[in-house]
Amino acid sequence: MKICVLVKDVPDAAVQKRIDPGTMRLDRSGENTLNPFDTHAIEAAMQLKEGGELQVDEIVAVTMGTDTAARALQKAVALGADRSVHLSDASLAGSDVCATGLALAKVLESESPDLVLLGQQSDDGECYTIGAVVADHLKMPSLTQVIDMKVDGDKIRCERQAEYGYDTVALALPAVISVGDAINEPRYPSLKAIMGAKKKPLDSKSAGDVGIDAGQVGEAGSQTTVLALNDPPQKEAGEIIEDEDTAETVEKIVAWLEERKLI
Amino acid sequence: MAGILVYALHDDEGNFNKNSLGALSEAAKLAGELGTEAAAIVVGDVSDDGAAGLGKYGVTKVYRAKNVPEGLAQPIVDAMAKVIQDNGYTYALFGGGLLGFEIGAGLTARLGAGVTMEVTKVKVDGGKLVSERPILQDSKIADVGYVSEPGIIIGRLNAFDVVEGSGTAEVVDVDVELSEWSTKAEMITRGEQRGADVDIEAADILIGGGRGLGSADGFKDCEELAGAFDNGAVAATRAVVDAGWYPYAAQIGQTGKTVAPKLYLAVGVSGAIQHKVGMQNSENIVAINKDANAPIFEFSDLGIVGDLNKIMPKLTEAIKAKKG
What we know:
Chain A is built from seven helices and 16 strands. In chain A, helix 2 crosses helix 5 (191-197). Chain A is α/β, with parallel strands linked by helices.
């Protein structure tokens, strides 16, 4: 079977993220990296492969994004994917969740995966929704924010926290599963894997290659529009104590609590 | 007909979710401003009285899909897509919570609709709804409009207040044909409680422990500290509950409980949005964290940058000594 892992190229955590006021889009010009949540999805795919209960023939990392996204794919491959697919096309720029989900579904369709894995959220968009959007387009069952996966015959038994406690759900394959970051501790890639990543196949695809109609993606296909960008109401900054002398720090905390009658 | 359709989630005993009731109240208010009506949709086993009773929150109609199971998103996408298409609803609204995210996302694909999530406020502008959506770790708020119908709005946890009045809603039973893929996920157990039962909602003082504690052992110090106060208890972030360091019943945030104690003392908690929504209404927030850039300091009344392992035991001692 084939597992496709959806990954995303996001601004590095050290980069101050900003919206370009001209386009109302995220400024992606700074240093980028593989979305940290996606490393858990790659690790989950690796564990399924190594677990041996499913015959996993291939793990394919799939992304949509500009040229820099190739680096996220390379990192995904260093973490264990066998090859990667890069959907890149000028017509995709400015896609909202609706348009992005459609485009990703189309590129996934061209791979006919038995299982699609992804991280529960992207570090930049924080939308939590792409997995469920993609699943409906692919007509596959899906579950998001999964923290445990077990192979159960021809199904995957998933656990997650929902509104009322833990839910256990069995999904028939093919399926789309987004994983939470508690599901595993991603491994560090070996130097050999990092060096070898460049040699693994990377397919570049245009929108037309996977049958995406340009009118359905990008700004043209987006169904939401950002009308304005505002600063949130500022909460008065609290008092900050740098702990240098712990006895003194504790005294200050106690005084602060006493002043508010909390002790 | 324009109108707003709201999904009302319920547990296995038929009790409706507080965030859903907030969404119903919000939809009723917005519908009033738009000159239209708000309706609810419920699935599974909901009694006539239970369904009609949602009228108390301002909806005039409740669609009930008895043959659609509660608890998994895709069958509910089938139900909502049908009701929206058959009746021309122009917006679908969800209260905060995991299931609403999944259903809203599914509807986005099914109906080719625009979606906004983590919405903290909805306003009416020129006869249309505009969502306020915090982005980039809440450093900006985007006003987002919908270019087509329907628009899908997924609220942030506790974004919408419950407003209870009187009134009953008309109950309309709908027959929904499930998509083939909607039947391929099977709920084995729902809402399982794990670990000891702790009552964090009744506590005046909460010590909230996060990943910065380093291990499950760190919670012993938290319990000592909580014990030093009157009516103190220990709460936890999702990350540490998922890691098995502390019981689920103590979890605060997006998928856990919402609390508003007199004092919330966060130790080793970074202050991610998912946690913040569950405790930001606490009267006083104190945070101890070694990372001076942790988001928790942005909404703390008192922040201590330092090693919690050094500070916590001394603080416990000092408070015990004060009380004599």
